[in-house]
């Protein structure tokens, strides 16, 4: 048996992922276009979403300022992104890492994360239902085939007995 060690991010990656997904959905931007607002490479944004790399405070602020300026209807600015990235906002001091139990993300981020989880569960349930339906149809065909073979066998036996 092969065992893998999985490193758990020390920041709320699910919150940031949900917020980024919401931004992409509501603006219609690609990941590359969103990354260009920072500016940074699209692969870095992918690492943020996967939890492979924690975003720098300054990068989150830059992205938040760009979104506030170009997509004000989203009501997402630096503060929302910085919080989703796991930083505490203290405008008088330097950014400070949050302990995960102290994180209080914006309601929109929580709702987006919950909606994403719900959609994934519903998709999995639908997939399971489709698979079960295919299996039932397959078994039904097999039963029909067995009935036909049984009837053919009876007919052949009846024909031999009557001859």
From TrEMBL:
Record domain HTH cro/C1-type: where: 20-74
SMART domains linked to this entry: HTH_XRE (SM00530)
Annotated stretches, region: Disordered: 143-163
UniProt-listed Pfam families: HTH_3
Source organism: Streptosporangium canum
Molecular functions per Gene Ontology: DNA binding
Protein name per the record: Helix-turn-helix
């Amino acid at each position: 048996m092969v065992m893998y060690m999985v490193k758990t991010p020390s920041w709320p990656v699910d919150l940031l992922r949900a917020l980024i997904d919401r931004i992409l959905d509501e603006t219609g931007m690609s990941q590359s276009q969103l990354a260009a607002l920072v500016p940074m490479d699209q692969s870095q944004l992918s690492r943020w979403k996967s939890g492979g790399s924690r975003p720098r405070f300054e990068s989150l602020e830059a992205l938040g300022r760009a979104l506030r300026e170009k997509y004000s209807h989203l009501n997402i600015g630096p503060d929302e992104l910085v919080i989703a990235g796991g930083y505490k906002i203290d405008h008088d001091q330097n950014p400070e890492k949050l302990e995960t139990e102290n994180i209080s993300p914006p309601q929109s981020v929580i709702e987006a994360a919950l909606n994403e989880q719900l959609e994934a569960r519903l998709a999995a349930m639908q997939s399971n239902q489709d698979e079960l339906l295919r299996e039932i149809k397959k078994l039904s065909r097999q039963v029909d085939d067995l009935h036909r073979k049984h009837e053919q066998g009876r007919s052949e036996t009846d024909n031999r007995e009557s001859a």
